[in-house]
Design a protein that fits this description.
globular
């Protein structure tokens, strides 16, 4: 305490002893802890607790230290369990609420793989199950769910890969901002990490080990851009795309120069073609000579190889990590470019997820349930003739073909039996989207959606299938989708002018603070059901007279009259 008083006197700061405490090592005797705490007039605490949700002191068991993340996710899932959410809504909740609730923890510490796997299982079970009491039946692998949407997955966060990507972002931030305090401390203590970030630090804290994971992820995705070549090692560093350099037969590594600068002509600053062909095989020599050379001499530098501009992005790091850990089938019939166009189609979000399930054979039809060991009737619930598969139920069944022929879609019998269902569906969606025939695309998904609703009504509610009722229900879903599309267009439409009759002003009401004066605020709004435009306005007035002191108004868009009233508030 004798040291603290001069510090407070010099700095002008005061220490609040009521908020302060002292923590001792576990090896310190208990009686000594109490005696020293009394002499310091401070309470003794067993741990530092947490700061902004992060544990301040970690023990030997990191699983126990980070177990609170499982409890946090389980509590949030319990709050959403009673809501009847669609699969599309669950995707938004998982990524935007559940995972985002502990992003700050993932950005600082490396979470143990046991915790990450447990959270992944909780999120996957939440997405697959259809009710509170059910456990959910996973019809596709978790690695497919974790793939980004543009690669044929659903984009559900893989916690382990996302954790490594966020830590890599911290490493990139420290590498490009050496003036930061944490960067100065780290690079001063370990100066070799500035040029060799992949080197490991032995006997370090868990926070430092977490940064090492980030630096390792960063090093696996960075490459050298060769300038003068004095910093780039020929065999030890990554500077040639698509793999390390391979030497020519008969060339020994001991006779090879160390750095890439020996492969550059110092006069022309171009590749020395003779040396390159003499040291490397024909394929590798062509790849090296194809590397762009700068027009003038410049230093070597790192760049991120997973983006076009070479700048690190967390999204690209996460995508590369997920693709490295997932087991993707080489016989995938749908290309990534098609998936990116599919998720951008003007359809209801639940229809897009439903289309993904159709193409991924992830619907609980009879054939899929039998493969999972569930005893059900294998025959189609409509025709009771053939096995109920996704292709048969949604196209090849005679009852469903009759529905297609009676719908507004101009399909013939030949169009409905040309090829496998997945290829057929991809071709039909591509044809409608390329011609921008959004009405036919909407009618197609409405009919497929209603067929699935009808089969569930037949199974669980014993409702018979009536063609007229199915077509009428499909027409109602088409109208709902078109209304949603018009609302999205209205929301995204820029407001070029304020409608006549509305005014916009800013008023500052102030006066003598010792004088009591009351104001009344009157709010109102109007909403057009035709194009979802709205106007909101407000005025200030004194409660005992009709004198208006000021006000304002603005034009906006709203989904309903209640929405417009809320915007006015």
């Amino acid at each position: 305490m004798g040291l603290l008083h001069p510090f407070c006197a010099e700095s002008g700061e005061m220490i609040n002893l009521h908020k302060s405490f002292v923590k001792f090592s576990p090896n310190t005797p208990q009686d000594y802890n109490e005696a020293l705490g009394c002499s310091l007039r401070l309470r003794v605490a067993p741990s530092f607790g947490s700061y902004l949700g992060l544990p301040m002191d970690l023990g030997r068991s990191k699983v126990n230290d980070f177990g609170f993340l499982i409890d946090k996710v389980a509590a949030l899932l319990a709050s959403f369990a009673s809501l009847r959410l669609s699969a599309a809504a669950k995707l938004i909740i998982i990524n935007s609420i559940l995972v985002a609730s502990f992003n700050h923890v993932l950005s600082v510490f490396k979470i143990p793989s046991t915790i990450c796997s447990h959270i992944d299982n909780l999120l996957a079970r939440f997405w697959w199950r259809s009710s509170v009491g059910s456990k959910g039946l996973a019809l596709r692998s978790a690695s497919l769910l974790h793939l980004p949407k543009g690669l044929g997955g659903l984009g559900i966060r893989n916690i382990g890969c996302f954790n490594s990507a966020l830590l890599a972002r911290q490493g990139d931030r420290m590498s490009h901002n050496p003036q930061l305090l944490v960067s100065r401390l780290l690079f001063s203590k370990y100066p070799t990490r500035r040029s060799r970030p992949e080197l490991r630090i032995l006997r370090s804290s868990w926070g430092c080990r977490s940064l090492q994971v980030g630096f390792s992820t960063l090093a696996s995705g960075t490459m050298w851009k060769v300038g003068i070549g004095s910093q780039v090692r020929i065999l030890a560093d990554t500077w040639v795309p698509n793999g390390p350099p391979t030497l020519r037969e008969g060339v020994s590594e001991s006779n090879l120069p160390n750095h890439v600068s020996s492969l550059i002509d110092p006069r022309s600053n171009a590749w020395d073609t003779v040396k390159v062909h003499r040291m490397f095989d024909a394929v590798m020599a062509v790849r090296i000579l194809a590397l762009e050379r700068p027009s003038q001499r410049m230093d070597d530098f790192f760049y991120w190889k997973h983006t076009r501009d070479g700048i690190f992005l967390t999204k690209s790091a996460y995508t590369s990590l997920v693709c490295a850990t997932s087991h993707r089938s080489g016989t995938d019939l749908v290309f990534p470019q098609w998936w990116r166009r599919f998720w951008g189609l003007p359809l209801l979000p639940k229809w897009k997820v439903f289309g993904w399930k159709l193409l991924r054979n992830a619907l609980p039809v009879a054939a899929v349930l039998i493969q999972r060991g569930i005893s059900v009737d294998p025959l189609c619930s409509f025709c009771h003739v053939e096995e109920e598969t996704v292709g048969h139920l949604f196209r090849d069944c005679e009852v469903v073909k009759h529905l297609f022929l009676r719908s507004s879609l101009a399909f013939s019998l030949h169009d409905l039996s040309a090829q496998s269902f997945q290829i057929w569906l991809v071709d039909v969606i591509s044809t409608f989207s390329s011609s921008k025939d959004w009405n036919s695309l909407t009618s197609l998904f409405a009919l497929l959606w209603v067929i699935w609703i009808s089969i569930n009504n037949f199974r669980f509610r014993w409702q018979s299938l009536v063609s007229e009722d199915v077509l009428v229900l499909a027409s109602s879903w088409v109208i709902r989708c078109q209304e949603a599309q018009r609302f999205v267009v209205a929301i995204n439409r820029p407001l070029t002018r304020i409608p006549s009759g509305l005014f916009g002003s800013t008023f500052l009401l102030s006066g003598d603070s010792s004088r009591s004066l009351e104001f009344c605020v009157i709010l109102d709004s109007s909403w057009s059901v035709r194009d979802n435009t709205a106007g909101v306005g407000w005025v200030f007035r004194t409660p005992d007279s009709s004198l208006f002191l000021g006000g304002g108004a603005r034009a906006t868009c709203a989904s309903s009259a209640i929405h417009a009233e809320l915007l006015a508030c």
